[in-house]
Amino acid sequence: MLVVKAGGRVLQRNFDRLIESVRKVNDKVVFVHGGGDQVTETSKKLGIEPKFVVSPEGIRSRYTTKEELEVFIMVMSAISRHMVERLSTTKRTIAISGADGNAVLAERKKRIMIMDERGKKRIIEGGYTGKITSVNGGLFRQLMDFFDVIVVAPLAYDPTEPTLLNVDGDQMAFALAKELKPDALLLLTDVDGVLVDQKVVERLSPEQAKELSFKIGPGMNRKLLMASETVSSGVRRVIIANGLVDDPISQALLGKGTVVE
Amino acid sequence: MVLLKCPVCGGDVQVDDNALPGEVIEHECGALLEVYMKDGKLALRVAEQIGEDWGE
Hints:
Largest interface: A-B, 31 and 14 residues
Helix content of chain A: 25-40%
Number of helices of chain B: 0
CATH topology of chain B: Rubrerythrin, domain 2
Order of helices and strands of chain B: EEEEE
Distance between the termini of chain B: 38 Å
CATH class of chain A: Alpha Beta
Low-confidence stretches of chain B: 52-56
Strand order of the largest sheet of chain A: 5-10-2-1-13-17-18-16
Strand order of the largest sheet of chain B: 3-4-5
Number of domains of chain B: 1
Number of strands of chain B: 5
Oligomer: heterodimer
CATH superfamily of chain A: Acetylglutamate kinase-like
Number of helices of chain A: 8
Shape of chain A: globular
CATH class of chain B: Mainly Beta
Distance between the termini of chain A: 17 Å
Radius of gyration of chain A: 18 Å
């Protein structure tokens, strides 16, 4: 079994080749998709200006209001359904969110600390993003008896509110991989892998990945740190690879990218 | 400036007149304090620990 995550940019620029690539896999696939850029685009069309906040550590992040959560659910569901539409000709495919069968639960971040426009640390209402707390592994394993591909939107479920929550697609993929222990977790991005001095780092142990995560830029640093944790938890390998090439899944499995193992 | 008391050590804390609710101040005693409004006036309480985990 493979867990594959592709960000919104990869989907936007390489959708057809990505679908072809999933079709070629002779194994079960759990496919997590992103779509942040598509959410921003649709929000703007609807007259909802996306809001971003900056953490005290300088990480810029989307702030999901209730209004924007509705757009998020709509856009992510559309992306999921388009994937099912294209894959179902040859693969038994289903799309779910975290709320379906309590597949992925999360806790809403009720309050977050930001740097405000005056450069001061401030605690504000947390919006509708969440931290994943559990994955219903039994449900995914049962679904795999009936389906070849499970498409998962980055929407987790907080049953205490109750509400769907925007969760980071990478974190969704890492949480699924930790629970399902696939043969590999592939993170398809818009670069060739982890770059140091303009060169792709081909292979890293979990310890090396953790060490490097403190030295490289935001975005990739979190991927590396989580890759390190995921391999340490028992997943054989995590591959960070380019999703904009022909047959990106086979290319990644051939080791073209950064392999953490 | 408004002079308030640290709820942890009781020491003085200078807070800007235009401080906003939610603003976080690190006091010299090491306490992390949050500005909030109480009966229309600025007040201080211990800021709860907020973990770092950001969404999409």
